[in-house]
Design a protein that fits this description.
alpha+beta, Bacillus phage protein, 3-stranded antiparallel beta sheet, 34% strand, DUF2591 family protein, Phage_P22_NinX
Length: 124
């Protein structure tokens, strides 16, 4: 396993945010190492059924198919003011560039708190 570092929830972006959301949701998250042509570390989720196992990229901060499920599951409300997005679930998160980022940070803050541990490879 990789070394973990502590990061403020409000500072989470990209793959680190995906990792934190996956952990908050109780998913079996893991890292795929860098690939060819400069592909960076990426977060994936292992889904296991009774007879099969499959993996899928987990990127709710940029994929509405994943973020939309989170909105419905956690009854998150969105607001747009002064050019920035905010989300209200069990926690209020403001000042985000996109709605999915606001949604993800609100869920992480509600379930894991103001600081979280993420793999150091995911931080810039």
């Amino acid at each position: 396993m990789t070394d973990l570092i502590e990061v403020k929830t409000a500072d989470l972006v990209g793959e680190a945010l995906g990792w934190a959301v996956g952990k908050a949701e109780g998913l079996d998250v893991y890292l795929e190492p860098p690939g060819y042509n400069g592909v960076p570390w990426r977060v994936f989720v292992r889904y296991q059924g009774q007879a099969i196992e499959h993996t899928k990229r987990y990127n709710p901060w940029e994929d509405w198919a994943l973020a939309g499920v989170l909105v419905e599951k956690h009854c998150v409300c969105l607001d747009f003011k002064c050019g920035l997005w905010s989300a209200l679930g069990d926690e209020w998160i403001a000042g985000c560039q996109t709605p999915p980022i606001a949604i993800c940070r609100a869920i992480v803050a509600a379930k894991l708190g103001d600081t979280v541990q993420v793999p150091k490879e995911l931080m810039p």
